[in-house]
Design a protein that fits this description.
The complex is a heterodimer.
Chain A (H helix, E strand, L loop, with lengths): L2 H14 L13 H17 L2 H5 L10 E2 L10 E7 L4 E3 L4 E4 L1 H6 L1 H16 L9 E7 L5 H14 L3 E8 L3 H10 L1
Parallel strand pairs in A: 1-6, 2-5, 5-6
Antiparallel strand pairs in A: 2-3, 3-4
Helix pairs in contact in A: 5-6
Chain B lengths: L5 H10 L8 H17 L6 E6 L23 E6 L10 E5 L5 E5 L8 H14 L5 E6 L5 H13 L4 E5 L8
Parallel strand pairs in B: 2-5, 5-6
Antiparallel strand pairs in B: 2-3, 3-4
Helix pairs in contact in B: 3-4
The chains are: A alpha/beta, B alpha/beta.
């Protein structure tokens, strides 16, 4: 057998080999992209920075109410968080002290007053009406602490004070039944 | 010599198959943004109870419990108390109607107030004073915040939308 014959057979052999697996087609992700776009738009619509400012705090027991009032438009929010063991001021959660300090310690009240005054000073005069103080307090705290915050807030010029609660449409019947138990 | 023909160039362009855009970078972006937004979303929204402390007759925190620009004699007052005292204080609620009767609602047990009783009293009062929207809640310092908020809530749900928040006399110096 000549070398030419062998080359021809080899070439024939190469031609005979067929690809058993066809090239996989690219996965169409257009429909998935559509779904994701819808979800994205929905989420962006729902996420608001105001909601984050007054979101439910995990280690706080909120009072329950039927009343659900909405935060005024363009509100300039200053949150105050009253836990049973600490008081936090502002969006940065500055530690003020314990709730007892609000009553017993003049220094603590002065610090709170200065904080509220600094918050008010950052608000333009024409927008004073939009200044809001949001009190997020534990339901088991005595009202004396709340009153102090409200008193200092109103003295500083906060005209709108909101109390954060959890909505419960039928708390009256559940409260009555719980009290009889 | 090749002749340049714009029409031919346009034809060639239209004949080429449209290329599918590469969506992978956009997908990567979306897959990153969506979990981030889902973390930020607030599932259980906090409700709010608003009190307006504007000078136009809004709620006041009066130091002597009689504030509100001398309107107190015309206002329905709800006194929230927790301790018994010889001056007439008792654990419970006292609803004072201007020129009318006084309703006393003692606590049902320790720190459990008779909100059902308060609700029925408020319903009666609203029927008698249909034009009145104002009510004053005078809260003693030891009463818990939950009681105050529930009382304000009942006032608002019964049509007394303008709630004055007052407390007995306390004086502090800054």
């Amino acid at each position: 057998m000549s070398s030419n014959d062998t080359n021809v057979r080899k070439q024939k052999g190469r031609r005979a080999i067929r690809k058993k697996t066809e090239e996989s087609k690219g996965l169409s992700i257009t429909s998935l992209l559509d779904v994701l776009t819808i979800i994205l738009v929905f989420l962006i619509k729902n996420v608001s920075m105001e909601a984050v400012k007054i979101s439910e705090l995990p280690d706080m027991k909120y009072p329950t109410t039927v009343t659900v009032e909405t935060l005024m438009d363009n509100a300039l929010v200053t949150p105050v968080k009253l836990y049973t063991d600490r008081v936090l001021l502002g969006l940065d959660n500055q530690l003020l002290g314990s709730p007892e300090d609000l009553i017993e310690n003049v220094e603590t009240r002065s610090v709170m007053l200065e904080f509220f005054q600094s918050e008010m000073s950052e608000i333009p005069e024409e927008r004073y009406d939009e200044a809001c103080l949001i009190v997020q307090a534990d339901g088991d705290l005595p009202c004396a602490y709340i009153t102090e915050i409200v008193r200092v807030g109103t003295n500083t010029g906060f005209q709108n004070i909101y109390f954060a609660t959890l909505e419960e449409a039928d708390w009256l019947s559940s409260y009555a039944s719980a009290s009889f138990e | 010599m090749a002749v340049y023909r714009p029409s031919q160039a346009r034809q060639q362009k239209s004949q080429t198959a449209p290329q599918e855009p590469n969506l992978v970078p956009i997908m990567n972006l979306f897959v990153t943004i969506i979990p981030f937004l889902m973390l930020m979303i607030v599932i259980s929204q906090v409700a709010l109870v608003a009190l307006n402390f504007s000078s136009e007759g809004g709620p006041v925190v009066a130091g002597d419990g009689t504030g509100g620009g001398g309107e107190s004699s015309e206002q329905i007052e709800i006194h929230l108390m927790l301790k018994e005292h010889e001056t007439g204080l008792f654990p419970g609620m006292e609803i004072r109607e201007p020129g009318g009767s006084t309703h006393k609602l003692p606590t049902l047990s320790e720190n459990v107030y008779d909100f059902a009783g308060l609700n029925s009293v408020l319903i009666d009062m609203k029927q008698r004073h249909a034009d009145t929207n104002e009510i004053a809640v005078i809260v003693h310092p030891e009463v818990i915040y939950d009681t105050l908020i529930r009382t304000i809530d009942l006032c608002k749900t019964n049509g007394f939308v303008s709630v004055h928040y007052k407390n007995p006399k306390n004086v502090y110096f800054y």
